[in-house]
């Protein structure tokens, strides 16, 4: 439809019909609900009104959605089709590593491929929109949803966010095989106080703008046509009714002109937050904040029309919001082709060989070898005992794998049988050591202890106050350690766990995150050395929960402690643990050693519109080919406000053959140096800068330059 035709359609709609387009219901209003992703709400709808609303949450499957859409086309007075939206955030049927695992790949291009493959399956199943990328930076592993983001770094999160949008949307959101992205949760949901989900967010504006917003902005700039408002507050105003955040920042500063949808029930929760007097007040405030779709609350549905009859301002805002929803439907091509997908496409793409291989590769490249004192890779003729319930659990795909089929998930124990049928592996899939298990461990060349948390222990609302390895797994490890110290600790988790005891006693530690449907095959390929680990820490592993929130990109404070060797009185440090992470951002081992040359800069002074090229050579000194995430960090030595000790500003992940040397270059421009100065202007200030290029945030491979 043309813009004019959309305007004509709008003019033919009644006020009530316009408001109905601004509603999202879950499938419960259509009989066989498949998925409820929030608390129950009991509110009444008029007869058949569910067929007149604009969008549906959480339903999928070609036949199912085709039937639903036929209902909308028949019963909506202007035959306006519905948009089908759901949370497909790391795969639809074929499940890939959770986003935090993808973050550990340090490979946004891989994530683009995963998003592209996800879109093929979701689109085949009739979906139009996915509630992804989740762009919430998180530095607190107590928050169960850190699993849904890509970690603690603003620059890296932005790269992953734009990669996901590009992968989902491909050559156009109206095309079969693509789905529209929805950027969430706007904004700074990952800064939940004390890591407890849904709690408030207390950030200064500079931290919000510099650390939390870049990933949302990157996704908006990449063309995502929807943004979801977060549950939390910013400046003590809930995001869904926060005009400064939703209009001034999102629409004016970021230039977003698409559809804003609330999170599940978030509009009516502003009443519970106590900043809306009642649902009528909440509806008016959300509308004034530019919120276009009220997901799973009845504020718009039941409390907007009456007050809008008395207010030209509200009627104008309703027209604007309804038109944005119609424009989205038009961009999705729904007026011409309301039904997406087909049975044939579902059969073609679900678990297809290409997606299965992608699932294996993604798991290989997102697992992190945190420690290895020579135990790995294991020889294929090794006698191996595997212990722990997680070894045969299918709960290793991560939450939000809502359309996964658990009988398709390949467990760790099954994966070795299908990939290495001749391997000598005994599996004792329980968490309590017994005589038989320990006898097997004792006679083995190596023991793999599967520890961590099943995937229902992380995700939405799954906050924990202590991220230590659970007592049961510590006891299991100790029992095995008592009979055989050749232990690989294999971690499944949706967050960085505090594992100082494993770090001390394990011969090797491999963190698999939640590797997905076929990912365990890739984990065994790493263990047996048919693949070279290349994952890196996307979110700091603390020694203890007490260090959280934490990040490598910290500030010096007025009393810094460099290389702490025991407690330093009257300085910024803990009495019981180091200030640093057990495993810091960017850390990870390979079976190869990569040697870096010194950093060479093309110039030692950068002018306002110039650039400096920073170059290193990287040599694979090992006997195995491998990939190396080469990281560029920059420090602004002095600023009109305090500046972090270092910030990631560049990343490349070259494949380097054994013995080969490659050259890696980064361009440094003033764009990379900007921050919000004392007057909140986004500027780069002249002065000294340090630059490092290396294999983790610990790199000391340093050079210096000046900004004139
Ligand atoms: C949930 C989540 C959000 C999800 C939405 C729809 O409450 O917060 O991430 O997209 O509801 O399922």
Structure description:
By secondary structure, the protein is of the alpha/beta class. Among the domains are: 356-547, Rossmann fold; 594-707, Immunoglobulins (Immunoglobulin-like, Sandwich). It is 29% helix and 18% strand. The model has no long low-confidence stretch (mean pLDDT 97). It binds alpha-D-glucopyranose. Residues 37-38, 57-58, 87, 131, 184, 263-264, 460 line the site of alpha-D-glucopyranose (GLC). Alpha-D-glucopyranose is lined by residues 37-38, 57-58, 87, 131, 184, 263-264, 460.
Topology:
Elements: H1 3-12, H2 15-20, E1 23-26, E2 55-57, H3 62-75, E3 83-86, H4 99-104, H5 108-124, E4 129-130, H6 154-169, E5 180-186, H7 205-221, E6 226-229, E7 233-234, E8 237-238, H8 243-253, E9 259-262, H9 266-272, H10 279-288, E10 294-295, H11 299-303, H12 305-309, H13 312-331, H14 343-349, H15 353-366, E11 368-372, E12 383-387, H16 412-419, E13 424-428, H17 435-442, E14 446-452, H18 471-481, E15 487-492, H19 500-505, E16 508-513, H20 519-527, E17 594-596, E18 600-601, E19 605-606, E20 612-620, E21 626-627, E22 630-636, E23 647-652, E24 655-656, E25 661-668, E26 675-676, E27 682-683, E28 687-694, E29 702-707
Parallel strand pairs: 1-2, 1-10, 2-3, 3-4, 4-5, 5-6, 6-9, 12-13, 12-14, 14-15, 15-16, 19-29
Antiparallel strand pairs: 7-8, 11-16, 17-20, 18-20, 20-25, 21-24, 22-23, 22-28, 26-27, 28-29
Helix pairs in contact: 1-13, 5-6, 5-14, 5-15, 6-7, 9-10, 15-20, 16-20
Bound molecules: alpha-D-glucopyranose.
């Amino acid at each position: 439809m043309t813009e004019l035709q959309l305007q004509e359609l709008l003019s033919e709609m009644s006020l009530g019909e316009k408001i109905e387009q601004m509603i999202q219901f879950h499938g419960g209003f259509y009989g066989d609900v498949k998925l409820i992703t929030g608390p129950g709400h009991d509110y009444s709808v008029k007869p058949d009104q569910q067929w007149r609303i604009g969008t549906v949450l959480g339903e999928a499957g070609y036949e199912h959605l085709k039937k639903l859409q036929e209902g909308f086309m028949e019963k909506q007075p202007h035959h306006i089709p519905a948009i089908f939206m759901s949370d497909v955030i790391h795969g639809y049927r074929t499940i890939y590593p959770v986003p935090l695992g993808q973050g550990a790949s340090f490979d946004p291009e891989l994530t683009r491929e995963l998003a592209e493959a996800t879109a093929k399956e979701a689109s085949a199943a009739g979906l139009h929109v996915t509630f992804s990328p989740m762009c919430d930076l998180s530095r607190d592993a107590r928050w169960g949803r850190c699993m849904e983001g890509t970690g603690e770094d603003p620059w890296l999160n932005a790269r992953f966010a734009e990669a996901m949008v590009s992968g989902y949307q491909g050559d156009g959101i109206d095309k079969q095989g693509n789905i529209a992205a929805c950027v969430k949760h706007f904004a700074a949901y990952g800064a939940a106080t004390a890591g407890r989900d849904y709690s408030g967010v207390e950030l200064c504006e500079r931290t919000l703008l510099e650390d939390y917003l870049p990933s949302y902005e990157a996704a908006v700039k990449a063309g995502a046509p929807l943004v979801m408002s977060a549950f939390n507050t910013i400046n003590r105003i809930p995001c869904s009714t926060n005009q400064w955040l939703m209009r001034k920042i999102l629409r004016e500063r970021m230039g977003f002109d698409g559809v804003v949808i609330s999170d599940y029930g978030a509009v009516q929760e502003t009443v519970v937050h106590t900043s809306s007097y009642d649902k009528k007040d909440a509806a008016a405030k959300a509308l004034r904040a530019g919120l276009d779709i009220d997901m799973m609350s009845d504020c718009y549905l039941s409390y907007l029309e009456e007050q809008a009859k008395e207010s030209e301002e509200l009627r104008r805002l309703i027209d604007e919001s309804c038109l944005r929803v119609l424009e989205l439907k038009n961009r999705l091509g729904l007026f011409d082709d309301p039904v997406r997908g087909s049975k044939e496409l579902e059969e073609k793409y679900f678990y297809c060989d290409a997606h299965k291989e992608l699932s294996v590769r993604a798991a290989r490249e997102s697992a992190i070898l945190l420690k290895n004192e020579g135990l790995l890779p294991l020889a294929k003729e090794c006698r191996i005992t595997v212990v722990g319930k997680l070894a045969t659990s299918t709960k290793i795909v991560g939450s939000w794998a809502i359309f996964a089929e658990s009988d398709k998930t390949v467990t760790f124990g099954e994966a070795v049988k299908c990939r290495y049928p001749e391997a000598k592996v005994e599996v004792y899939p329980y968490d309590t050591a017994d005589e038989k298990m320990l006898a097997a461990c004792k006679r083995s060349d190596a023991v793999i202890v599967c520890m961590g948390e099943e995937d229902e222990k992380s995700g939405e609302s799954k906050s924990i106050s202590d991220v230590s390895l659970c007592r049961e797994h510590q006891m299991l490890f100790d029992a095995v350690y008592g009979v055989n110290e050749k232990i690989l600790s294999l971690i499944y988790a949706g967050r960085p766990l505090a594992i100082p005891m494993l770090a001390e006693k394990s011969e090797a530690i491999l963190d698999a995150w939640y590797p997905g449907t076929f990912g365990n095959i890739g984990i065994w390929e790493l263990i047996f050395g048919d693949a070279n680990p290349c994952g890196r820490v996307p979110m700091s592993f603390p020694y203890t929960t007490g260090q959280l929130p934490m990040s490598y990109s910290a500030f010096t404070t007025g009393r810094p402690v460099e290389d702490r060797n025991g407690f330093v009185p009257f300085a910024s440090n803990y009495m019981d643990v180091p200030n640093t992470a057990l495993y810091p951002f960017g850390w990870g081992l390979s079976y190869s050693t990569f040697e870096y040359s010194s950093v060479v800069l093309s110039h030692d002074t950068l002018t306002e519109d110039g650039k400096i090229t920073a170059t290193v050579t990287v040599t694979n000194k090992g006997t195995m080919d491998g990939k190396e995430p080469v990281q560029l960090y920059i420090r602004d030595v002095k600023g009109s406000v305090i500046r972090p000790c270092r910030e990631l500003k560049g990343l490349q992940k070259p494949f380097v053959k054994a013995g080969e040397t490659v050259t890696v270059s980064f361009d440094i421009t003033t764009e990379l140096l900007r921050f919000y100065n004392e007057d909140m202007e986004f500027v780069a200030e002249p002065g000294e800068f340090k630059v490092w290029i290396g294999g983790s945030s610990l790199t000391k491979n340093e050079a210096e330059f000046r900004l004139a």
